[in-house]
Structure to design on (186 residues):
């Protein structure tokens, strides 16, 4: 009689997971952001969302039998927007907010009269930007990483603050867009 490959009993399942490399903890990550003109962001990131990924396809009408053509994958998709979301606490000097404001201004700066003042290219503005997300094990060893290609700030997400939030810390949430990403298992 054939047996299941993955044990269904909780003790056997736990032993198979613990006997291997273990499971990734959701809170064991670091995010590094560096923009050439602004420098390295030295601020801890509290939350990060990784992008989804899909393969977008087109129907193969030439070899279809009947009215049911198969899809052929032709390009990468990202399950929505190609972006990551970062959440961080806001410092009292608002330096971390200013970092992202200044980064966005590189793409679309305005003068004191509200007129656009820069005529650069997207490629030159993103060429020297670096955003990396690294996942760590319990001993702080890097196990997996994602590097964004041509990253740029998309949105400083609107936040609400109120007088009744007396014991809460202010948060800053940012959406970072990108062209592509690469991953590396370490």
């Amino acid at each position: 009689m054939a047996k299941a490959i993955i044990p269904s009993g909780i003790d056997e399942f736990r032993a198979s997971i613990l006997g291997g490399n273990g499971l990734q903890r959701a809170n064991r990550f670091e995010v590094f952001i560096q923009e050439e003109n602004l420098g390295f962001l030295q601020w801890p990131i509290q939350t990060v969302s990784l992008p989804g990924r899909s393969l977008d396809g087109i129907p193969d009408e030439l070899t279809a039998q009947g009215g049911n053509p198969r899809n052929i994958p032709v390009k990468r998709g990202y399950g929505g927007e190609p972006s990551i979301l970062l959440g961080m606490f806001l410092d009292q000097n608002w330096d971390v907010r200013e970092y992202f404001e200044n980064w966005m201004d590189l793409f679309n700066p305005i003068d004191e009269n509200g007129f656009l003042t820069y005529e650069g290219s997207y490629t030159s503005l993103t060429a020297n930007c670096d955003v990396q997300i690294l996942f760590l094990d319990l001993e702080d060893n890097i196990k997996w990483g994602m590097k964004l290609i041509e990253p740029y700030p998309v949105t400083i997400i609107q936040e609400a603050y109120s007088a009744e939030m007396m014991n809460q810390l202010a948060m800053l949430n940012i959406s970072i867009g990108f062209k592509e990403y690469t991953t590396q298992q370490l």
User: Anything to note?
Assistant: The helical segments are 10-19, 95-107, 122-126. The longest helix spans residues 95-107. DSSP finds three helices and eleven strands in the chain. The chain has a mean pLDDT of 87.
